Every structure is written in structure tokens, then in C-alpha cells.
Amino acid sequence: MKHVTINTTINSKAYVLDVCPNMTLLDVLRDELGFTGTKRGCEVGECGACTVLLNGQAVNSCLILAPQIDGHEILTVEGLADGEKLHPLQESFLDHDAVHCGFCTPGMLMSAKDLLDHTTNPSELETRSAISGNLCRCSGYQQIVDAIVETKFVNREE
Amino acid sequence: MKPFEYYSPSSLSEACTLLAEFGADARILAGGTDVLVELRKQGAKSSEVIVDIARIQTLRGIEESGNSIVIKPLTTHSEILHSRIIENEAPLLRAAASGIGSPQIRNRGTIGGNIMNAAACADTVPPLIALDASVRLHSSKGEREIVLSEFFVKPYATVARPDEILVEIRFPKLAGNARSAFSKLGRRNALSIARLSVAAVLAKSEAGVITDARIVPGAAFPKWQRVTEGEKVLIGQKPSRELYSEAGKKVSEVMISFTGRRWSTEYKEPVIAVLVRRALEACE
Predict the structure, then answer these.
(1) Residue partners of B142: CB distance under 8 A and separation at least 6
(2) For the segment B55-64, what is each residue's pLDDT rounded down to a tens digit?
(3) Which of A134, A140, B99, B232 is most buried per CB count within 10 Å?
(4) Which residues contact A132 (CB under 8 A, 6 or more apart)?
């Protein structure tokens, strides 16, 4: 199988990668680059644990072939914090005890980031809809929704 | 995932050359939300060649063309959801797109992929058939246009040849007095495969008499079709809940005449009738 060379930006850093075309973006992130914050769950696009932002939009990294990110920009959960300073969403998740086992958290954060980047002061309904592609098997949805909705107040005060 | 050769042509002609060369060994990749799931299945027939058409910019976008709306196949469900043109001219398609998968799936999945995958539960197909849409196929041998209602052979099979690419979906704008709606029943709201759905268009004269009625159920028939028997119940009548229920019952009868009675009929028989009524009521 012929390898493919791709140029991509991950968490604001440029990469030139030599990839097997049958690898997914998820494989590249976790196995090649060590961004293990992005979780491997169902691998059929149903659980949302592998959610990352592709050009600012939430996508399932398990459903994207590695060569398909050539020329595009990826943001993973590792790119949310600014150095030691957590992203307001991460602070809000901590404040609201929105992390139980933590497996869904990176995906939830990325779906929430997409929402807050495109919607000011989202309603609870908009928030639930934005994370409808992310499963939390600990079933801590209420805290997660609260955390996301409350994040907007953090942003507003800034 | 099994190995394959990967090509990402940047022009339509380049893509057609590849498809003409590899024929049935090639698989077209657009958003990947169905294809990747397929590729990963154990024991599935593997594709030897993947032709990723996502770089072909001419296959993106929604435009008005005279009295028609043209949707290019790489348009994502999210783009349909946020399109002013679709909101104004085809609200039933917008409604169908809004219920597909999850935000993540809608950001990648394309309308062309939804049509070409041809799953019986494809949410965008019933609205498109209700809109009298047609599709244009392109290959190195030329182009042809096919009415969407004649495009499907059976679930997961279309009349498209392996060397053809879907390049355009086109439908006439609805009349100014027409209203449309889409009702879907799934096991949950998000990430649910349609168990049954109904796309409907309804137009009334100034006197309040129904002049145009189109009913297209999804996941109900072996092939998508307008149920003219149900539509006839409505034409020339004044709208009422009873009339809509009667049309729903008719659709249910026609469905059973196609599928026969099976284990799920006891459930589907009353449910499809209610979905038809709801879709018609939503057209008010």
C-alpha cells in the first residue's frame, strides 16, 4: 500500500506526515503523535469519544481517513488549554463535577467548544443538541449540560 | 481496516479517468460516514481502490438556477441545515437533514453520499422524491439525468454504473402556496436510524381546497415512491384531521400491499398512518 504525505496543522502546530491511507485521523492522533486525550470508543461514529474539531467543526475522528486531513486544521482536547491555564470550558467542567469516569470528557469538551464558538449564550436545548452525538455511560449529562451552559457566563464576564 | 490504494483527484475528469480504469474495484469516498463503517467491517468485501472526491470543489454548494434549486453532492447535511435557500424553498429537506445522525455526522456526511449509499432509511431521499428531484450522473462517456424516483433498484442498489459520479441534484421550486413537512420516527432523537418517516407537500387554493398533495414514506417500501392512492384522497378536498387520517390509512394499506404482512406489520400499520397525518398537519 502506497503511503501518502500530508500537511496538516494540529493544535496550532504544522506537521508533515507520512501516513498509510487506511489509517484514520484517530489512529494518527493516538498512535502516531501520542495525542491520547482523544479516545477510541465505538469506531463507528456513534459514541463521540473521538470528537475533535476539523476546521472548527466537531467531527468523529474515527470516520476520517488520515489522507483526508491534508491541508486542514485539527484541534484536539490537548489544544484547549493555554499552557497551564485551562480553557473556561475545562474550568466549568471541574466546577460542576461534570467529569465522572472521564472517558467521554474530551469528546464532550470538543463538541461544547464547537457550540460556544458558533453560538453566544446557548440555551439548554441547544446545548443538549450539540452534545447529542456524545455518549456518557456514567450518565452524568445534567452536570455536563450545566457546565457548558454556565461557561457562557464565564465568557460574558471576560 | 484492510489496505487499499488511495486517490484524491482534484478535478472531475481526473476522477472519471480513475473510475473508468478501476471500475467495480473502486469505491467513491465523500464524507466517509457510511464508507468508513463499511471498510472497517470484518469480512466485508474490501474495496481495492478508494477514490476520494472531497477535493473536487465544483461538487460543493447550493444554488438557485432559474426556477430550480441545484444541490451539489458534496454538500454536507450541516450546510443544508444552514442554507437560507433550502430554508425558504425546501423546508422538508431541512427538517430531514436536521435529524440525521449527530452534529459530528452532519458536519461530514453529504447529501450525495446519502443518495448513493441508498439505505432504505436514508433521510434525505423521501423529501427529494416529494420535490420531484432528479440526479445527474457524469462519466468519461458522458452525462445522463435520471428522475430520482427511478434511480433506486432496491435498498443499497441504484442504476448508477461503477464509472459514474453523481454531480448534481436538482428539483423545481415549490409553488408559492405549497407547504411541506417531514416526520420521522426513530428509537431516540439523536443518532437514530429512521424506523419510518414521511415527507409531505400540500398546496391549497385560495378557497382552501387541496390542489397538490405529495406523500413519500421512508423505510416503508422496497423502493421509495409517491403514494398516489393516498394523495388522491386529498386532492379537491378541504383539509381536516379526518381527511388526513383517511389518507394515512390509505398509505398504510398500500404499504402492506407491497410488503405483505410480517412480524413488524402490526406496529407499522397504525404508525405509518399517524405519521402521514402528522406530516400533513405540519404542512398547515
Answers:
(1) none
(2) 999 999 999 9
(3) A134
(4) B102, B103, B189, B190, B191
Q: Which of A116, A126, A118 is closest to A153 using CA atoms?
A: A116
Contact B2 A4 (CB under 8 A): no
Q: Given this model, what pLDDT does residue A155 score?
A: 47
Domain region containing A35: 4-79
How many helical (H) and strand (E) elements, i.e. helices and strands, does chain A have? 5, 5
Give Cβ neighbours of residue B37 (< 8 Å, ≥ 6 apart). A44, A45, A63
Letter for the amino acid at A118? H
Would you place residue B45 in the very low, low, confident or very high pLDDT band (cuts 50, 70, 90)? low
| Angstrom distances, CA of residue B274 to CA of B29, B197, B231, B246 | 37, 10, 15, 10
Cell of B144: 445522463
* pTM score: 0.94
B42 CA: distance to closest CA in chain A (Å): 13
Q: Which residues of A touch B8 (CB under 8 A)?
A: 67-68, 70
| Backbone φ, ψ for residue A4 (5° rounding) | -125, 135
Chain-chain contact of A48 with B50 (C-beta, under 8 angstroms)? no
Distance separating alpha carbons of residues A32 and B71, to the nearest angstrom: 38
Instruction: Name chain A contacts of B6, Cβ cutoff 8 Å.
Output: 2, 4, 21-22, 65, 67
The amino acid sitting at A64 is I
CA distance B97 to B186: 14
Q: Which CATH class is domain B5-52?
A: alpha beta
**What's the longest Cα–Cα distance across chain B?**
64
Domain B57-172 falls under CATH 3.30.465.10:
yes
pLDDT along chain A (158 residues), means of 10: 94 97 97 97 96 98 97 98 93 95 98 95 94 94 96 55
The tens digit of pLDDT for each residue in B189-227 reads 766 777 889 999 999 999 999 999 999 999 888 888 999
Q: Are the CB atoms for B113 and B136 separated by under 8 Å?
A: no
